[in-house]
User: What shape does this take?
Amino acid sequence: MAARRPRCAPVAVNDRAPARRPPPARRDGAPARPRAIALSYTAGVIGAARPDDDAGGDDAIRIGVSACLTGAPVRYDGGHKLHPFVRDALGAVATLVPVCPEVEVGLGVPRPTLRLVQPACEGGPLRLIAPATGADHTEAMTAWTRDRVRALAALGLCGHVFRRNSPSCGLWGVPVYPRADGGRAVRTGRGAFAAAFTAALPDLPVEEDGRLDDPARRESFVARVFAYRRARAALGPGATAERLATLRARDDLLVEAHAPGAGARLDAIVTAIAAQRVDPAAAAGAYVAELMRALARPSTDAKRARALARAVARAGRGAPAAAAARDAIRAYRHGLVSFSHALGEVRRLARARGDAWLASQTWLFPEPGERRLRALAGARP
Assistant: This one.
């Protein structure tokens, strides 16, 4: 007879409102006014309208972001976690949509810190609890998140940057504790809002602020944001074999520079929809998911050199600029010249040849916004 599984003891939660402490007295004897901030960004966005952001039209580049990363003083202690790349680079090209789950759910600033808590029994649901008061905010956060994610999805985001280690916004490695009042973390998980967001929008490019300090991760995120935008524009009116094939052809060298093996898998999806073996909508979803997985892999010098060599092979050996391009790639492989130099030679060759396929490559000739963001991010322009 199987042993009976022990019942899970409930998490100790104080469901009473915490006692209010009187505010500290001012020097004149009058009570001090408690500090608070207004949630001024809830219905708004950061960033001015741009030529490619036609009053919020389909071409707008919108990126969700944890509000503290923009410099908004929404942290539990009234501080912020300003990230220059987020504000100055992403904000220069895209319209940032700031989100602070803890403030928007009504916890205010300042506020007690929160932690993710999982009951001792296996499989117990995660709870979002304030250790200082015992207040359980799980239900309130769940209800708010459901509506907020739906609203963010309707905005047509092209990506989202989350604050690391946050019990609401952390994507990876957020400590999960066995009880609210102490103890060592038993495992790591995903913040309450981040978990619901990524479950609802699984293919949307997401990243954490800490990982964006790595140039390779920044380059990957930028590539995913613009590739996602292109895919949405191409497949939004309805997936067809022709649209999918065109999208695949334009991103061919981009995929080569990140995940060479993914090209065959993407080609198989295009072939399947052309042969009418799969539902077009399902094929489009599978294609975008595979493309995002491919571009999430950081590019390397070896991968870039291989993609450049493919471009030169396409142009042919007879072109006058082909020898210079091959020499530049060879020097780049040996660390003698920069990637920008080698890329410039290949671009010069592509223009000289007038090849339509080379001219269409998003990796060789990115749109102005993407090229600008690459430069601002410190990546290869």
